Structures are given as C-alpha cells and as structure tokens.
Amino acid sequence: MSEPTPYDKLGVNDEASFEEVRDARDRLLRENEGDESQQELIELAYDAILMARLRARKEGRIAVPDRIRYPERVATVAPPASQSSTQRLTPSWLSRLLDNPDPKDIYISLGIFTGLGIINLFVPASSIWLSIGLTASVYLLTRKENRFGRALLISLAGISFGVALAALTDQFLVLSRLVGEGLFPSSIQMAIILLVMWLHTCFLK
To answer: Fewer Cβ neighbours under 10 Å: the N or C end of the chain?
Structure first.
C-alpha cells in the first residue's frame, strides 16, 4: 500500500485551491487539538503542499494569484471602479483644498451671512458687517482644520475677491445709474461679497 500523500493527509485533492488547503489544515488542527503528534503531521503535510506548489510556480507549471503573492496590495490599493468620477477628474491639490461640509455647517454659515445681508439692507454699515463676516469666516474655517493662520489668509483672500467682483458690478448694473448713489447698488454689491465669503467658508478648508 502506497504512502499517503500530503493531500491525502489533509483530505483534499491535488487541484484544491490555496483556501481549501488552508481551511482543511485549520479544521484538522481544531479536531486534533491537544494531540501534538497529529498536529505536527498536519503542519508537515501543509508545508509539503506549499513547498511543492512553490517549486511548481518557479518551474512555470502553475500561476499563483496576486491576492496570494501580494496580499498587502489587494488590501491597500482600491479598485479603479470604486473611485468616483469626481475623484478621478479633480487634481490632487484641489482635492486637498476643497471641503465636503456637513449640512449642519452649511446651514449655520448660510444663516450668518444671510443675516448680515438682511441687516445691511436696513442698517447700511458695510465696514461693520464685513468685519463681523470676516470674524465668522475665520472662526468657522479654524474650527475645521484648527489652523488659524490659514483660516485668516483664506478669509482675507475671499473678501478681497468678493470686493473685486462687487466692484465690477458698476460696469453692468444699469439700475445703479438710475438710482444714483442710493441704497440699491451698494446692497447688491454687499450681497455679492457676503456670497463669496459664504462659499469659501463652506467649501474650502
């Protein structure tokens, strides 16, 4: 009678997958818990199968899947299908700058800047409301990343951009010429500045 092969000892055939061989070894180890001699034979059979398959792979007779050869790659590299189209199209520097805010944060900042805009309609005092808006912007941005200097820089840049954009409305608002120096044009421009401030406060980090 021929000597049982390592496959026979584990109760699997020679075409069994790596997982099947491993599972058979684990099951037999549990069944023979406390029997050191049997467990040693099971481990020897398992090692013999691995060595035989390693030699076969080196000789080019079998191919070992990447998930067995490089399990750490499978664990750390996300499949391309799982990456959203937005992530693929957005440059890395822009992804680091943009934020995906919680709806609650959006509503809080929207309430602050909308309130400032409404107050300005009735009590025009642009410098005061802009100062309050700047303070709110710095606070909300600092709360995200806990980086005061960056928050202040972004807020100042946002106000500067908003002021420049609002200044351009003088070229396009025909109503501003009709109303003259009244309330309407300055309110529109203030709204533009506050809108820009709300956008950078919410969606930048």
So the answer is: N
Q: Give phi and psi for 204, each to the nearest 5.
A: -115, 160
pLDDT in tens, 77-96: 445 544 445 445 556 655 66
Partners of 98 in the β-ladder? 204
Prediction pTM value: 0.43
**Cα–Cα distance, 132 to 100 (Å, whole number):** 24
**116, 194 contact by CB (below 8 A):** yes
> Most confidently modeled of 4-8, 41-45, 134-138, 169-173?
41-45
| 163, two tokens | 């002021």
Sequence spans of domains, the chain = 6-76, 96-203
Distance CA 9, CA 42 (A): 7
163, exposed or middle or buried, with CB in 10 Å at 0-12, 13-18, 19+?
middle
Q: Measuring CA to CA, how many Å separate 85 from each of 40, 80, 82, 94, 205? A: 52, 10, 9, 15, 22
- Tokens of residue 69, six digits: 């050869």
> What are 204's strand-pairing partners?
98
Q: How many residues does the chain have?
A: 205
